């Protein structure tokens, strides 16, 4: 049996009232696909673990994080729309712009800085029994990098150039960061750059010695920062500011000495590396510098790019400030009391 006209009007009115009370339907949180190279240097895979940090997660955004072991490989993924946020550096940013033709790439936030005064710089290690005592001795040797076109390879190139050598004077092989220490110990390579969790190990230091650091190439270097493409930022600005607010809150939590024991426990649980291997350096002065407002040091970045271009390890210099949009991070930081 059908409704009368008056009954139909009443039902319609009731439905309208119910919709008004319920309010508009909630949009699905934005899925943000993020790539990272190595943890806990990158805190992406652990940044939501601390209590009270992830205030917008699951509301305006969710994160799908992916391990991509070299920044140069992340350029390809970003260009193919396989990720939304990549972690690039002073070498891979120019390569993304020049070779990858990603003119729409924009710098969003800082991740880690190498060689910041009083903080850690990537070490380039050789075995104590190798007979290598100076950079010139690397000629004809096998040198490990985590990927071609990465910041690690760029700093190595610059130090070699300063000592009259070129990459072609040695054999360069790609080795994942997690395997660097073992590969050096097994004499498969003559030089490697293991993460601090490995190089700080007393057993490793009994076997190896540090020949130089990345700061010998650049001083302060912008070793990793977040980038995204301009259209993605424009379409999703609100959700990205929420993400950056939670990220900045996470940086400050991990930086806080009173949280160090818990921070190490989080890093250990994720990486499966015993906590004692993080003690005394992780998230402190023995670690990479993490800016508490996620601000990239654009002046240092430009200096890094200029040095690389001068030695022709990148095709040409690009102007870093033309590719930054730190306004989202500034807005996010201003929200945190």
Instruction: Quote the distance from N terminus to C terminus.
Output: 62 Å
Sheet of most strands: 3 strands, antiparallel
- The amount of helix comes to 25-40%
> H/E order of the elements?
HEEHEHEEEHEHHHEHEHHHHH
The gyration radius over C-alpha positions equals 24 Å
> What is the fold named in CATH at topology level of the largest domain?
D-Maltodextrin-Binding Protein, domain 2
Report strand order across the widest sheet: 3-9-4
CATH class of the largest domain equals Alpha Beta
Question: What's the tally of helices?
Answer: 13
Low-confidence stretches: 1-24
Q: How does this structure look, described?
A:
- The protein has 337 residues and is of the alpha/beta class.
- It has 2 domains: 30-117 and 221-335, 3-Layer(aba) Sandwich (D-Maltodextrin-Binding Protein, domain 2), CATH 3.40.190.10; 123-218, Periplasmic binding protein-like II (D-Maltodextrin-Binding Protein, domain 2, 3-Layer(aba) Sandwich), CATH 3.40.190.10.
- Helix content is 37%, strand content 16%.
- The chain has helices at 5-22, 71-79, 92-98, 151-162, 180-185, 196-199, 202-207, 215-218, 230-235, 237-255, 260-271, 298-310, 327-335, and strands at residues 30-36, 61-67, 86-88, 105-114, 123-127, 142-145, 171-174, 208-213, 221-229.
- Strands 3-9-4 form a 3-stranded antiparallel β-sheet. It has a two-stranded parallel ribbon with strand order 1-2.
- Helix 4 links the parallel strand 6 and strand 7 (171-174).
- The protein is globular and about 60 Å long.
- The N and C termini lie far apart (62 Å).
- Residues 1-24 have low confidence and may be disordered.
């Amino acid at each position: 049996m059908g409704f009368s006209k008056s009954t139909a009007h009443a039902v319609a009115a009731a439905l309208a009232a119910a919709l008004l009370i319920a309010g508009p339907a909630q949009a699905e949180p934005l899925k943000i696909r993020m790539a990272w190279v190595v943890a806990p240097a990158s805190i992406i895979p652990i940044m939501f673990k601390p209590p009270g940090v992830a205030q917008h997660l699951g509301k305006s955004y969710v994160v799908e994080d992916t391990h991509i072991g070299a920044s140069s490989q992340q350029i390809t993924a970003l260009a193919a729309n396989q990720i939304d946020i990549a972690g690039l550096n002073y070498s891979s940013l120019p390569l993304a712009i020049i070779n990858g033709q990603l003119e729409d790439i924009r710098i969003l936030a800082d991740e880690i800085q190498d060689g910041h005064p009083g903080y850690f710089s990537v070490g380039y290690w050789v075995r104590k029994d190798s007979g290598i005592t100076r950079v010139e001795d690397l000629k004809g040797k096998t040198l490990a990098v985590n990927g071609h076109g990465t910041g690690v390879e760029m700093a190595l190139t610059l130090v070699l150039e300063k000592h009259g050598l070129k990459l072609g004077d040695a054999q360069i092989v790609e080795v994942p960061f997690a395997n660097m220490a073992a590969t050096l110990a097994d004499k498969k390579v003559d030089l490697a750059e293991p993460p601090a969790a490995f190089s700080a190990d007393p057993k490793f230091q009994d076997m190896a010695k540090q020949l130089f650091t990345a700061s010998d190439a650049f001083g302060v270097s912008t070793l990793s920062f977040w980038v995204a493409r301009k259209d993605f930022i424009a379409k999703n600005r609100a959700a990205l500011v929420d993400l950056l607010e939670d990220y900045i809150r996470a940086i400050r939590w991990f930086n806080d000495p009173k949280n160090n024991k818990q921070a190490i426990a989080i890093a250990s649980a994720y990486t499966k590396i015993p906590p004692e291997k993080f003690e005394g350096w992780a998230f402190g002065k023995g670690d990479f510098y993490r800016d508490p407002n996620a601000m990239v040091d654009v002046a240092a970045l430009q200096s890094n790019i200029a040095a690389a271009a001068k030695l022709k390890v990148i095709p040409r210099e690009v102007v870093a400030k033309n590719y930054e949009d730190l306004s989202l991070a500034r807005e996010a930081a201003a929200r945190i009391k």
